[in-house]
Amino acid sequence: MPCLNEADNIDAVHEEIVAELSGYAGLEILFIDDGSTDTTLDRFRALAEKDPSVSYLSFTRNFGLEAAFSAGYRYARHPWILHLDADLQFPPAEAHKLIERAREGYDAVFGIRVDRQDRLLRRAASGLHDLIARRLLRIEIPAGGTSFRLLRTDVARRVVDLRLATPYFMATLPRLTGAWTTVPTAHRARRSGEAKVTVRGLARHAVELFMSHSPRPVVAAGQVSLAAAALALAGAVCALLPGRLPAAAALLGLALAAGLA
Question: Is-above-0.85 flag for pTM?
Answer without folding.
Answer: no
